[in-house]
Amino acid sequence: MAASTCQKNAITLKGSTETVSEFFMYGINSILYQRGIYPPETFTRVQKYGLTVLMSTDEKLKVYLQQVLKQVKDWLLDTTLQKLVIVIKSLDTNEVMERWQFNVECDKTVKTDSKPREKSEKEIQKEIMGVIRQITASVTFLPLLETACVFDILAYTDKDQDVPETWGEAGPHFIANSQEVRLRSFTTTIHKVDAMVAYRNDD
Amino acid sequence: MPFGKHSPLTCLVEFDGIIKGQLRGNIVTEMLKYVLYQRQQIPQTYEQLKQQEQLKQQEQSKQDKQQEGETLQLKRKGPQKLQVRKLSEALENIEALFHNINQAFSNVNYINQVVITLGGTPISPKETYIIKLPGGVFEGSILSKKEVIQTLFRTLISQDLLGDFRNMSTTNSYVLLQAPRNSEMQWFEPKAAYKLPNRGKIIEVSLVCNQGSNALEADLTNVSSSDFEISGISPLEISTVSTEGTLCNSLNDMSINDSSFASQDVDKEVSPNSPDAMATSDVEGHDSEFIWYQAPVSVRGFRDKRASAKMSSCMDIWA
């Protein structure tokens, strides 16, 4: 996907957008698998970033994520996306259990016709691999989700953006009395993504 | 400790409470899982591999039932069969390690260090992970497994110790435990001549139990070795003393091999066999009393070739 616009040693705004949205696709799927939001047998293994990543085969979920990421891609290309948040909530109580936050810093000076930025695809992929690995390893310290859970995706954009038809305005879905763990980040030099997870502190 | 030209990467993990015996074994097995996955020796986490193996077995037994009475033909292609064998072998060895590590911690009270090496041999590995286990503390709440594992991995992941490491090719992983020479260690083989490697990357994870230790240290500086009076503790759970000159010196005066200690009133004496009293190389003169014991099996790393085969179709779906 991203290969056509991310040359070996340089990257354009379009290539960066593809790379980041592709990361979100794999990252969200990893979270949904790791946290047991969907049954494990509905995932299939694929090789990406030098890792085995689990991707959902659930048709409804795939369509939903494709819609979300299409919009996210537009915001990335406009350099107006600030955060993407995956919220995991209890199905029964609607209580927020976990919040995976990806802060996005966009270089607004870069336009679609700007000169490509120097950064190798290999280096970017290596950084992304580090983030995906940490997402996977996070299961070791995150509390067990004991009830059935659902997830929501929240996007924070620049204020002047119109709300797309399929999106609604929502609150931040913060967790009261939470613990936070900052994860790795990666940068394409055009978009920088910082990851963190917040979870309910039951202690 | 011989660390060669590269200084070790260190990570201090502090626990606010007591870690009881068996939990120390759990720490080691969880660390092993973490290292194997993070350093690409297994393509997915141990739990995921296990889950897949179980699903595969369930499918297989369904197929077997359907084919009852017919001649069973193995339909897997050659490379896939090899992949399945590698996975089964790795899981089998990991499980043997887990079982025996837990057994060792149940049977031997004084395991104070564990080493996981990645590389051709444990003598010249590419990477060495030294886990310095905590000594006991005398006061404080007893930590649950959940608390211990969460604290350990929250710290490891926050500090991101392995984040900048280069990708690693698949290799062998070995586990060694350090315990007294005369301990009744089973399954693990004594390697009296083994020394910690001084080549490759060295990562040292020190686990420390904090609660109550300060009070103890203050007391210890004011008493002689014969005056120790510590109540309410298990005789073999003594706090870390390596940083306390007073206690180390006192312990040096005691004979490590003095079997009479075993029959002494443990409430009034610090057992010289405690992990702290025998804090390996930190206590001068007692190095030789601890030796390394090596697990007789290693884990051979492997890549997931089956996943790559599925990649194109899955990417088509998601494109």
Automatic annotation (TrEMBL), chain A:
The keyword Transcription regulation does not apply. Pfam families: HORMA. It is found in: Nucleus. Keywords: Cell cycle, Cell division, Mitosis, Nucleus. One of its GO terms (biological process) is mitotic spindle assembly checkpoint signaling. GO terms for cellular component: kinetochore; mitotic spindle assembly checkpoint MAD1-MAD2 complex; nucleoplasm. The keyword rRNA-binding does not apply. Residues 14-197 form the HORMA domain. Belongs to the MAD2 family. This is Mitotic spindle assembly checkpoint protein MAD2A.
From TrEMBL, chain B:
Residues 57-77, 262-282 are annotated as: Disordered. Gene3D superfamilies: 3.30.900.20. It holds the Pfam family p31comet. GO terms for biological process: regulation of exit from mitosis. InterPro entries: MAD1/Cdc20-bound-Mad2-bd (IPR009511), MAD2L1BP_domain_sf (IPR053729). Residues 59-68 have a biased composition (Basic and acidic residues). This is Uncharacterized protein. It comes from Owenia fusiformis.
